[in-house]
Design goal:
binds zinc ion, 3 domains, HSP40/DNAj peptide-binding domain, about 25% helix, single chain, Helix Hairpins, 9 helices, alpha+beta, about 350 residues
Amino acid sequence: MTKDYYKTLGVDKSASQEDLKKAFRKLAHQYHPDKKGGDEAKFKEVNEAYQVLSDEKKRANYDRFGSADGPTGGGFGGGQNYGGFQGGFQGDFDFGNINDIFSEFFGDNRGFNGGGEAKPRGRDLSTEIKITFEESVFGVKKRIAVNKMATCNTCQGSGAKAGTALKQCPTCGGRGKIQEMRNSMFGSFASVRQCPTCHGVGKIPEEKCTHCKGSGVHKKEVEFEISVPAGINNDETLRLSGGGEAVAHGIAGDLYIKISVTPHSTFKRVGNDLVMDIQIKLSDALLGAEYNIKTLDGTIALKIPEGVTHGEILRIRGKGVPTRNGRGDMLVTVKIVMPKKLSKSAKHVVEELKKEGL
Ligand SMILES: [Zn+2]
Ligand SMILES: [Zn+2]
């Protein structure tokens, strides 16, 4: 993804949240599709840019990786396994959010999608998975099972028994909407809402699907394969759009997956670098040496330079956490182990050093 969100909003990289908001409001007014001369495509672009840059965390990711979701961009990547799921905000345009923004502008609640009845949306779900340190660094595919309301496989969500005809809905007479009188402090008024029997379809099946009893959804265990992107941090959350509970004739909610990374026994992660300590002998510090150390890529020989000091950090380039622009480094802090006791001859050698002023 190479979209330049700053350019889209016409601001520079150092823009404050206030600058962003101003720029967004101006452009959103200009391109709003309900307005004469509006431009829906541009409007969506502007909205997408603002959704990312107005969120500090997404903005930081975007500045670092060129994507709001972190190193690999799509969150869940592409791939056929994901069916209708799309990673993050990129694919699914959030009308709910935009309507909030516009009620702020226009002082009313009119939707961007006109007067249509909003589709019901299933509940969001959340779960947690544990991954190893190595998996967090290199990325991993994981299968997770979630027990949730899902679309009925037997009737594909229609609620009809296979082969049955549809008949007119008796509740709404086929209109899909019902009108009811409501009372308010200004008197009574007619209000129109979606028919609860046919969910706005206007027709209901002659015979109900026996599997889901006509509801089109039922509780079951659903398995997902998720791609955890390389470089993910402990406690970061992935969103699987549509992975939440399905709802009859509506849109499924989202599934939030919290990533718990098991700490490594040797390394710690600091940004994109891996840090560790190495203990070396005093003689090796004075004369230089080679030590074998374990990295995420296997064992490598680390050269200890002659005269290294306690606390010095040796950098091994490219052995850290992968990012979009290559990998971070491995930083090895030298710890010189002082001998507890010197032999007679060793003492003699040190006294020689002392004579030399060392
Ligand atoms: Zn069914
Ligand atoms: Zn109806």
